[in-house]
Amino acid sequence: MKLQTKIMFSVVLFLIIPFCFTFYLIDKPMEKTIEQKIGKSNQEALHITQLNLQEAVGEMMSLTTSISLDESLIRILKQPDQFSVYERLRAADQTLSKMFSIYLHRWEYSISILDEQGHLYSSLNNQKTSDAWLSFYDNYTRTEGTRDRFQWVYHENPWFAPSKGPFISLVKSINDFETNRRAGVVVMTASSSEFLHLFSELEGEVLILDDQGKVLVHPDRAMLGKDLSSESYVGRILSGTSGQLVDETAENKERMIISYATVSKTGWKLIQRIPYNSVFKEIFKLREINITIVGVIFVVFLLITYSIAYGVTRPLKLLRRKMLHIEKGSLNSPIQVRGSDEVAALMMSYNQMIVQIKELIENVKYEHQQKEHLRFKALQAQIKPHFVLNTLNNIKWMAYMRQDHEVGEMISDLALMMEASIGRGEDQIPLSMELGYIQSYVHLQKIKYNEKVSLVIDVPEKLLSVSIIKFSLQPLVENSIYHGIEPLDGKGLIEVKAWAEHQQLFIQVADNGIGIKSEKVLEIQESLQLPDPPADSLHVGLLNVHHRIRHQFGAAYGLSLTSSENEGTRILITIPYAKEEADLDAESINRRR
To answer: Which residues form the HAMP domain (predicted)?
Structure first.
């Protein structure tokens, strides 16, 4: 068999047939995978809506709880006969107005309060008690266990709502603190259509069922109040917490992808139903297009393979041998080109490729160096001296009020800081110089905060000559003052310590400020693990110092942070330490003295 025939036979046997067979085998699993991916995406979107719904429900529960604990309202409800009608209505109106001003309302709702003697206080215009209200109150108070819990009530067309139903009400008992007896109830009512605003970002059909399978919220008003507990999928949903399934609905026998989640505060089921065919219609169409395209590609590929197989086979050994030289790292093996056919053009391309690879390697080396240099400069440029404006304002107003030598000291310290920020192009400076910068900075801040800030430096003399990255301590001290000490009730202390061990230099900046919340500490620690500082980070000073150290000394060095609320914050800098160089620098400093 000729080599050309072998190539064609191999292409058909080892490429086309296996591909077609594989495509046939993975078609259904792929469809299942897509279904799972879509279900996962729907579940994530549903989870966000679930959180929003829980937050909204929680707001309603918080509002009714706050009303039920209002002492002035309880006093009115407990002894209404001791107050005039005007006084009762005015007290109830003040309570409702106060609650409306405190809570952020997601939608419109009404609040009604009923005491034991049948007096009604409502956010609506209607303040008149009716038999329906008294019947509603009696039904609620007779229900076992309603004294200290919330009760959700569904109304088709309630008599007390401002418009036609359906509505959902939250009922909470109001108890007397002294006697622990019921003084009345508070009823918060919202239209079920208001919940639909939370579903605007979700695809398909979204509804809410209560814990018995009854429809509480649905875009189709005809479905409201309908009992769906007989549906096969509803039973599985009511017994579960969250998940995704594929089932048919009894309404139209259509196959649906159903995602659901539980509203923990109420036990409601938030359900999203998407027609299966509408999801996969485009996928099936794309599958047909892909099969057609692949078939055309195979035909063209066979034709091209047949046309070039013979001309390629003879020089393949030479080309392979030269390629082996490249694999071993030799780029000095050009091929002598003979002829003008496609293979000759391939060999010419091979020779040009060697030249381009050499150029690209050099370009990559140069670009890498430039990139690292620019990245380091960009990190330096991101450090903004936010304190300059505040300090200048302090100097300006102090100069207006009086003439004092402290103004001169402030200007001197400010000049030192500005001179340090301008610098002479150096990236590293002695630790003693960096400590001088932060002393000047703290001196400026002490004038601003009336000696509220104190700085203690505990650094052995032999470490003062060690080189560190310029402006690596000032941003940390600035963070300690503005985020730790400024909100502190009392005097703040910043302690800077340094020590060396195991060929490493450790510099610790600690304060006794208000500390950082645990979730914020975790966020900062995660940011410190990233290869580059996030562009939108709120901790640009801290992260830039960390990444400047890592770019200068390697990934093994940088910053670490520990903090607890009301216990201060500690930031530890770790950099390399060469004891011999430090000793020589220290000796030279002593000789100059």
So the answer is: 310-362
